[in-house]
Design goal:
The protein is an alpha/beta fold. It contains 12 helices and 15 strands. The longest helix is centred in the middle third of the chain and has 12 residues. It binds zinc ion (2 copies). One of its GO terms (molecular function) is oxidoreductase activity.
Length: 347
């Protein structure tokens, strides 16, 4: 098969022929029809993820068709249209037994713990626990977003953030996860304040339902701007970028008893992140983490997509062939872009 391979961190990846993957007894091989470019792929390429060994194939936000199944797989057959949460669970540890597959103790992640989906085929472990059926009428490019950004945002806003209609929700950082979060919060009846340094990202946020926008490039104190726009602070606030500055601004922009959800990755390379804990105590704030989403919790989200209340299809702004993936991966560092770029390995 053809795959995007890198031999050294930060040096150009290249498309080359490599051996086809084979399914584990509990796993499947999926023919990759679409795979999104995510900033986590860029972090992995830069060497920020200790789980990666070289040479490596990135890619974790995918959809496609089951090509081959291991002998212990019972729920899936070749030809099934599927996506998968990027956190693939073992199905048997204590976290999995409690229904919390998104924090599985023995999780695997395609594109991090093993070769990923910037390739024509990808191997996925514990298929019966992790695969999610993609409806016939959903394009693969749209379904790919359900593997990372859209599901991650859904868990952050709905499952961890417990959004309620009428609340003010601040979203700091309007990249892939942030824009998805704006759409999901607005569809939940919340009033959304979008914060970003990019006018193009804020324009998309407005399209996706943001009631107010804060241009962080022209605003000295974004937390103060959020408190002002929301009459005292957001009920729920997300750091969807992952930086010490946006994390602190998210916490500082909350009202009393507000909830902060950290969903943007804070790679260990940038050190430990300071949090304004005095405000957390005085205002009785809640600090929550959010990490992917368990496959068994996808049905309510898929139902909202089916009904048209949520439109992940609107996130997809560009599709590229595999040959364009190495340059697009490198460009994520300097120009993350406002929409979702999808690689189609067979085009
Ligand atoms: Zn991702
Ligand atoms: Zn587990």
């Amino acid at each position: 098969m053809r795959a995007v391979v890198f031999e050294r961190y930060g040096e150009p990846a290249e498309v080359r022929e490599v051996a086809d993957p084979r399914p584990a007894p509990h796993g499947v091989v999926v023919r990759v029809e679409a795979t999104g470019l995510c900033r986590s792929d860029w972090h992995g390429w830069q060497g920020h993820d200790p789980g990666i060994t070289l040479p490596h194939v990135p890619g974790h936000e995918l959809a496609g068709v089951v090509e081959a199944v291991g002998e212990r797989v019972t729920a899936w057959r070749p030809g099934d249209r599927v996506t998968v949460p990027f956190v693939c669970a073992c199905g048997t540890c204590a976290a999995c037994a409690a229904g919390d597959q998104q924090v599985c103790e023995r999780q695997t992640q395609p594109g991090f713990t093993h070769w990923g989906s910037f390739a024509q085929y990808v191997a996925l472990d514990h298929a019966d626990v992790n695969l999610v059926a993609v409806p016939e009428d959903m394009p693969f490019a749209t379904a790919a977003s359900l593997g990372c950004r859209f599901a991650t945002a859904f868990r952050a806003v709905v499952q961890q953030g417990r959004v309620a209609a009428g609340e003010w929700v601040a979203v700091h950082g309007c990249g892939g996860v942030g824009l998805s979060a704006v759409m999901i919060a607005a569809a939940s009846g919340a009033r959304v304040v979008a914060v970003d340094v990019s006018p193009a990202a804020l324009e998309l946020a407005r399209t996706f339902g943001a009631a107010r926008c804060v241009d962080a490039a022209r605003t000295e104190d974004t937390a103060a701007a959020v408190r002002e726009l929301t009459g005292g602070g957001a009920h729920l606030s997300l750091d969807a970028l992952g930086s010490p500055a946006t994390c602190a601004a998210s916490v500082d922009g909350l009202r009393r008893r507000g909830r902060h959800v950290q969903v943007g990755l804070l790679p260990s390379a940038s050190g430990t992140t300071p949090v304004p804990m005095a405000r957390v105590i005085a205002l009785e704030l809640e600090l929550l983490g959010s990490h992917g989403m368990a496959a068994h919790t996808y049905p309510p989200m898929l139902e909202l997509v089916r009904s048209g209340a949520l439109r992940p299809d609107l996130l997809v702004t560009a599709t590229l062939p595999l040959d364009a993936a190495p340059a697009a991966l490198a460009a994520l560092g300097t120009a993350p872009g406002a929409g979702m770029t999808v690689i189609e390995p067979w085009s």
